[in-house]
Amino acid sequence: MYTKTSAISSEALLIEANNVIRQHEAYLQGMVATSVEQKGGVLVFRGDFFLDEQGLPTRKTTAVFNMFKHLAHLFSDKYHLED
């Protein structure tokens, strides 16, 4: 099914993704990917989104969303999750 990408476990991919996050210039304290799933050819990363007391997004929320989007672009062309 995935001929151009390499198989990787979700655990190994999260380790690699969190290393990228920590080294990225947009890193914020507490930013971490806690799960990843395969949606077709796209790897979708998830984690905390820094909501305020009312459950509304903060400026940090946008940074986290952008980071997870960056990870999807970076890794979806390289990997697919092992079955």
TrEMBL record:
InterPro entries recorded: DUF2498 (IPR019633), YciN_sf (IPR038191)
Protein name per its UniProtKB record: YciN family protein
Biological source species: Rouxiella aceris
